Structures are given as structure tokens and as C-alpha cells.
Amino acid sequence: MPVKEFNTQYPVIDTDPHFSRVVRYFRGSDYAAMAACTAAAPGLMLAFEKANPVNGGRHLRGPLRLATFVGAVGGFLYAYQNSSLRFWGWTENDREVAKDMEEMQQLIKEGKPLYGESMMPKHIQDESARNSRFAQLKFSAYPWFNFANHNNHGVDTSKYSS
């Protein structure tokens, strides 16, 4: 099944980037968003507690820890989605395009496969790609990441050999 192509203002780097690659390409703004979400969740809980106290504010240690954890997970998913949008060319991605070109040309020089080696049969790689492509848009339902190496990334890899 061919990869759906979108008319994007910015160049497409990868339509199904590997988890580690998305995280490696995080920007400082992504880390700031993660930190803001992590701090905002317990902050909101404390604000709500101040507005409408329960049990005089006692026994908040466990709920605050849970709120911090939920904020951290939400912040990570938000940062991951922002990084993925840049891979897809949906937002400004000049820095990522340059980093991708440098990384891929280095892999070609070293004679390594561009998207890693896989032990899976071709039909399983294809299925894996279909399951994880654009999954970052569905984080509100369930977090799904691409942990598989495959060659179905929706880009012409000949641009790296020039």
C-alpha cells in the first residue's frame, strides 16, 4: 500500500520515524514543553486544592506524585508529537532537514543501512509500518510508537547519495 502523500509547506523527512530518532531530534522547546507540563499538573492540583480544600489539605503527597507523573507523561507525548510534526513536514523543520541529511550521508559513507537492520520478514515490516505511521495523531486514544526498523518511510532515499 503506498504511503499517503500530503502537500506540505516544508520538506518531508520521514513519515514513520523510529522512536529513538524522534527523541534524538527533540529541540530545546520540546524539553521546555515537557518541563512545563510536568510542573503544571501538580501546580493545577494545588490551585484547585486551595480553591476548594479537601480534608484541610492533608494527605496530598500521593496525589501530587501522581499528578507530576501524569504531567510528565503528557509532556513527553506532547514533545514527541511536536517532533513528529517536523518529521512529516507539517511544521518548520530546517534544523531537522540538515541533521537528517548529515546523518544519512554518514550512514551511506559507512555502508550501513539507512533505517537500521531488521530481523523481521518483509511482510511484517510492511505491517509494522502501516500500524505506526501517523500514530502520533492518536495519542489521545493510546500511545503508539515505532520501535521497528523497516524501509517504509515515505521518502525518496536517493536524495542522500548526492
UniProtKB/TrEMBL annotation:
Domain NADH-ubiquinone oxidoreductase 21kDa subunit C-terminal fungi: 102-160
Every NADH-ubiquinone oxidoreductase 21kDa subunit N-terminal domain range: 7-92
InterPro entries: NADH-Q_oxidrdct_subunit, NADH-UbQ_OxRdtase_su21_C_fun, NADH-UbQ_OxRdtase_su21_N
Pfam families: NADH-u_ox-rdase, NADH_u_ox_C
Residues passing through the membrane, by range: 31-48, 60-80
Record flagged with keyword Transmembrane helix: yes
Domain of life of the organism encoding this protein: Eukaryota
Keyword Glycoprotein: no
UniProt entry keywords in alphabetical sequence: Membrane, Transmembrane, Transmembrane helix
Name of the protein this chain belongs to: NADH-ubiquinone oxidoreductase 21 kDa subunit
Lineage, highest ranks first: Eukaryota, Fungi, Fungi incertae sedis, Mucoromycota, Mucoromycotina
